[in-house]
Amino acid sequence: MNLEPELPVENISPKRALIATHNLVEYAGSEVLTLELALELREMGWDVIVAAIIIGAPIQLEFQKQNIPVIELLSDQSSLTAVIFDFVWIHHTPVFYELFLTQKIQAHKIVFCSLSHFEPLETIPAYRANVDILLAHSEENKNHIIQENLIHPETITVFPIAVPTQYLVRRSIPTASVPKRIALISNHLPPELLEAKSMLEQRGLRVEHIGLGGEPLLIQAEILLTYDAVVSIGKTIPYCLALQIPAYCYDRFGGPGWLRKSSLSVAAHHNFSGRGFASKTASEICQEILHDYVHAVSETPALRTYAEDKLNLRKNLENLMSRLNGLSSHKETLIVPHHIKRQHASYMTLVRKISAITQSYDKEIRRIKTSFSWQITKPIRALQTLFRHLHLSKAKGWFE
User: Fold this and answer.
1) What is the pLDDT of residues 261-320, one digit of tens each?
2) Euclidean distance between the first and final Cα of the chain, in Å?
3) Do 295 and 174 belong together in one domain?
4) How far is the C-alpha of 1 from the C-alpha of 334, rounded, in Å?
5) What's the rounded Cα separation, in Å, for the pair 348 and 94?
6) What is d(CA 252, CA 229) in angstroms, rounded to the nearest whole number?
7) Backbone angles phi, psi at 88, to 5 degrees
8) Neighbours of 204 (CB within 10 A)
């Protein structure tokens, strides 16, 4: 595919941007980042469109609330055909190929951002001659991409998971010596955290699980500011640093515990994922949360300063745009072998089939749960659940 150096001005809307990702369904990392990028770019004066292969609730509703147009690439096959954008930001290789091979969009500036070094969809495209800048979300990911693809270090830039402006204009001022209300934010809660949650609750602390298996919520500054401390990893940690909320960095990969200046460099290198540190027992987690809270509070001002300097989404986007503006608008011919095209076509066919099955299943579940028989038998199911719980509790007692 040829992208001409000079694109016809009459076909270009002022500062038109496309942000494209694979899934827009859950309150998860890439989905939330897509929403934040769209909102921040719009505040910077861009006309923003979002595209995804799979779209659904709950996060789809957040885009609707913000009046951000979302295009489903599975069903709207012609809606983006040959559209010209000033700026395109893409997550996930299948999305990249779908946009440029199938939809045949064009763009003055193109960024591909990898958000993981172990998820297959996050692998950078093997054929990417039209990409202006490759981004990785951490030094750990950057190093992995360099080693896997044998590319020069200067060809990839770290764009850390940063915080929107709303997190930099407010702050928490903890006064208690022990956190009375804790948010445990995780979509993949490990057993030791679940056990630690129970132990802390037995000591009178209020610990609320937000995420898959708990209460699904779109994390925002006003929600986090209602807590004395947060236990989480990844994207939530920069939020806490900016808001000056003590952050206990721990999840399925382990973690440093209370984030301190001494652990900040290693934690940031691994995108605050918890990698680079040992795992802990539930007892260790409980003791650290109870006894080291005051020390964690004392370091929050310095961590906020770090967030203001390094993790400011607006500032980082402005720096990226400045760099892109210094690059040539010329796009090389994107040559993709036929076997890659066939693989991509097969992948999209498979996704369509799986999506159709999932939608049919969800529709049937909704039909059953809204039926008259389901409604009138609700008390019976509640009693069955209670009896089952009592039976299991009694059975457990036999073995103790």
Assistant:
1) 999 999 999 999 999 999 999 999 999 999 999 999 999 999 999 999 999 999 999 999
2) 69
3) yes
4) 5
5) 8
6) 19
7) -130, 130
8) 8
